[in-house]
Design goal:
The protein is an alpha/beta fold. It has three domains: 172 residues, Rossmann fold, CATH 3.40.50; 70 residues; 46 residues. It is built from eleven helices and eleven strands. Helix 4 links the parallel strand 9 and strand 10. Helix 4 runs parallel beside helix 5 and helix 10 crosses helix 11. It is globular and about 60 Å long.
Length: 367
Amino acid sequence: MADQDGAGGSAASYTLNVTAVNGFAYGVIGADIHVFENGLPLYLLANWPGDLTADRRWLRELPSRMLNASRAVVPFTGRDSELARLREWRDDDRTLAVLWLHGPGGQGKTRLAARLADESAAAGWRVVAAFHGPDADRPEPGSQDVRLADAGGLLLIIDYADRWLLQNLTWLLKNSLLHQQGVPTRILMLARTQDGWPAVCGMLDRYQAGTSVLFLPSLADGSGERETMFRVARDSFAAIYGLADAFGLEPPVSLDDPEFGLTLAVHMAALVGVDARANGTRPPAGVAALTAYLLNREMLHWSRLYAGDVAGTSGGAGQFRTPPHVMNRAVFAASLIGAVPGTVGAEVLTSLGLPSPHTVLDEHARC
């Protein structure tokens, strides 16, 4: 474990015993932990979690939950050439290689990386995910054993790499886990743009690492890839809704639209079509209308929470106290200002005249 003084100071090695009483403790076995002097981690390491599972009723309650890439409601489809490129990169004879995979949000980067991760784990590689410390979702309490033992190699996946503080990324790349003698190590960085890559390349020079970039393009129009992806998504969503008659459902809009070059847009079209069939309504046309449809379902969910129609929200500690029109304003404000500390969020909501800003913040997080 190394301590960083937060001002470019030197690192010191020492042993630290951590005991958590009525709290949360995090540790790793077989790797370093780098922390600021205030005790906050620069990043967290965890074994690749695989796909999350979720109750079907809970998913139907708020359809957008099915679009979460980590739940993999829709089986991985397409991207054959890009997946082949990643396999070739992983299996190269270099000791250390780093690849920057970039493309617009919703293009399918996370699912592509997850497919490579699952294949690599099945082939005997140790697969580890790195989470940015200041805004990371904490792994489950307890230690993460990332020792390589007899692993055929190490694959580290860093999502949203372009959002990391450069200092934190620098320390992650120093981790001894990534520099085990005789162990092929691959670092896959996912980002929306290529802007941060030159700085990362500069840091990698000292390690003599192989570096490469892969752009994830739009889904090809006219290749049948979009149509295949739509059918797979439609059938997956229909199974969750228990709809036997949705398997012949056609896209509510033409998939030739350039906006359906995004994997997310194709999945949205399938989800809206199935959800509309389940509710006996006609699906809207156009990508913007599909988005509006799902936003309306979000707002309906807020109304049900407020009315106590959702399990665990009526009476007692589980009571939901934010009216839908207040939540609507909070969501709009959050869309404008992005992620900020809780104190700043409370100040923003107070300036808007919203009642009980801290309650609104907590319940916004729940939604």
